[in-house]
Write a structure and sequence with these properties.
- The chain has about 375 residues and is an all-alpha fold.
- It has one domain.
- Helices cover about 65% and strands about 0% of the residues.
- The longest helix has 28 residues.
- It is globular, with a radius of gyration of 21 Å.
- The N and C termini lie far apart (about 50 Å).
- The N terminus is likely disordered.
Length: about 375
């Protein structure tokens, strides 16, 4: 009897599957936020219990400190950088000139900025100038990282650290009364800058200036991508990525007593420690998926990673809510007997699964939306 074989998953040519997994897992978590599942789970258990301590990790830390959820945006900004060398290499193979590459990068950056800004205009239904979300931030970090992609390793490292040092000094030395407390919410340079154009986030404390220090995430991603696309042996690539990640984590936590780890204003210690985690996760993904060839399970996340911008925008502009309205009557019949809390959790999980299924449907039809 012949052994039954299963067809290999379709993977577009030239893609690094570990990168698609990392990007897909990150986006899968981001779209899960729109279902409110993490809030329902946290509210279900009493504060101080083990489940509560686990689920609270899926919420941003209020100010000084670090939860797992604070790493998700740095992951994505880092991943965008990793993809740049692969994308550029593909475009060069297709015959594009350097001028065409730069024009595309500028157009992409402008579109990301417009999309990021436009997301803030949806809920109030009016023009709202805010630029704190991931797409608006990426419009800056992506373009800078792209423009220095061919510089030496030393230049890129020094440039990224110089951005962190400059940002740190601006916060510490900013002279305006009332905004010269660098690490106090709403009393720092970042908030003052946003107040100048009417886009301050006084409740969440996020600031637009984060795009400058977090450019380091995307630059470090480019450096990692250049390493992965090089001729070095796979194990050497893994070791360099893992070592850089561990050093970043140690350095970031070591800086915490001097410059506190605060995601909401992207302090240098936060950028370094989250960059370290990004490098380490990429290293482990690369080792497991591209070196050890453990791939059968990866496609679940990879399908999300192949259409990241589409599913993020779809969920953000109301796709999650739309799916909820469709599914709620059915989940109420199926799960209503379990109580409000359980019904909310199961309904949110169903909506999350429906968002994933959209990416699976697109993947099966080889639909990949890019900008």
């Amino acid at each position: 009897m012949s052994k039954k074989t299963h067809p290999k998953p379709y993977i577009p040519e030239g893609r690094l599957l570990s990168l698609d997994f990392f990007r897909g897992a990150t986006m899968f978590l981001l779209i899960g936020e729109f279902t409110h599942l993490f809030s329902y789970l946290t509210q279900t258990f009493p504060e101080g219990s083990v489940p509560y301590d686990i689920f609270i990790q899926f919420h941003h830390y209020p100010w000084h400190g670090l939860h797992f959820w604070d790493l998700v945006q740095p992951f994505f900004m880092f991943i965008v950088g990793v993809a740049i060398p692969f994308s550029v290499a593909k475009r060069i193979r297709l015959g594009q000139t350097n001028r065409e590459l730069i024009r595309h990068a500028i157009q992409r950056s402008i579109l990301l900025l417009i999309l990021g800004w436009a997301l803030y205009c949806i809920n109030p239904g009016r023009i709202t100038f805010r630029f704190q979300n991931v797409l608006a931030q990426l419009s800056v970090t992506y373009l800078i990282a792209f423009l220095i992609r061919n510089k030496s390793f030393r230049f890129q490292l020094i440039f990224s650290l110089a951005l962190l040092l400059a940002s740190d000094l601006i916060y510490r030395l900013f002279p305006v009364q009332g905004f010269n407390h660098p690490f106090t919410a709403n009393e720092n340079f970042g908030t003052w800058l946003d107040l100048q154009y009417g886009g301050a986030d006084l409740n969440g404390h996020w600031v637009s200036f984060n795009a400058i220090p977090t450019t380091a995430h995307t630059i470090w991603g480019v450096m990692a991508g250049n390493l992965l696309i090089s001729n070095k042996s796979p194990m050497k690539k893994f070791k360099w990525l893992a070592l850089a990640g561990i050093l970043g984590i140690i350095a970031g936590y070591a800086l915490d007593p001097v410059t506190p780890i605060i995601k909401r204003i992207a302090t240098s210690s936060f950028v370094i420690v989250s960059g370290g985690y990004s490098l380490l996760v990429l290293a482990l993904s690369y080792w497991l998926i591209d070196i050890k060839k453990s791939r059968n399970w990866v496609i679940f996340f990879a399908v999300v990673g192949m259409n990241p911008l589409f599913i993020y925008l779809f969920a953000h502009v109301g796709g999650a809510g739309f799916n909820l309205h469709i599914l709620k009557p059915f989940t109420h019949v199926l799960f209503g007997w379990a109580g409000t809390s359980a019904e909310n959790i199961l309904t949110a999980t169903t909506v999350w699964a429906s968002l994933w299924y959209i990416t699976w449907w697109m993947y099966k039809r080889k639909i990949f939306i890019k900008i």
